[in-house]
Amino acid sequence: MSNVRKLLADYATVKAGMEQLRLERESIEYEIMGEEVVKKLDEVRIEYGDKFDFLDEERARIERELREAVLDSGDSVTGSGWRVVYSSGKVRVNMKKLKEIAKDNIEVAEAISEKGKPFTMIKALKR
């Protein structure tokens, strides 16, 4: 386990180094561009920000309509380079009740004791 902790420490160091380099690069880019160029870029970002906001709201509205239509039809739909996938949802099992049943039935007990393949995720902790 100490090897995993060392790897996590190395991982955190590399991620922090990448972020530091990104910040340094941005700082140098702003120095090179000068204050006037930075002001102009900010103006452009503000002007386009409103346009992006409008399009993002429109995208969200259309997404809601697409999801509703696909849920109502029960079929996936493909078109214009996109696919809206219908999924009937996962079946949830009441494990507490199933374990009670399994106490009296060996076949059920064996069936619920199967275990999936282990997997990993690397997640940033909230600070």
Description of the structure:
The protein is mainly α and 127 residues long. It has one domain. The chain is built from three helices and two strands. It has helices at residues 2-73, 95-102, 106-112, and strands spanning 77-79, 82-84. Strands 1-2 form a two-stranded antiparallel ribbon. A hairpin with a 2-residue loop joins β1 and β2. α2 (95-102) runs antiparallel to α3 (106-112). The two termini are 24 Å apart. The model has no long low-confidence stretch (mean pLDDT 85).
Topology:
Layout: H1 2-73, E1 77-79, E2 82-84, H2 95-102, H3 106-112
Antiparallel strand pairs: 1-2
Helix pairs in contact: 2-3
Short structural description:
With 127 residues, the protein is mainly alpha-helical. It has helices spanning 2-73, 95-102, 106-112, and strands at residues 77-79, 82-84.
Task: Compute the average pLDDT.
Answer: 85
Rg, Å, rounded: 26 Å
Overall number of domains = 1
Percent strand: under 5%
As residue ranges, the low-confidence spans are none
The run of helices and strands is: HEEHH
Helix content: 55-70%
Task: List how many beta strands DSSP finds.
Answer: 2
Largest sheet: 2 strands, antiparallel
Major sheet strand order: 1-2
The end-to-end span amounts to 24 Å
Shape descriptor: flat
Q: Counting H and I runs of at least 4 residues, what is the number of helices?
A: 3
Structural class from helices and strands? mainly alpha
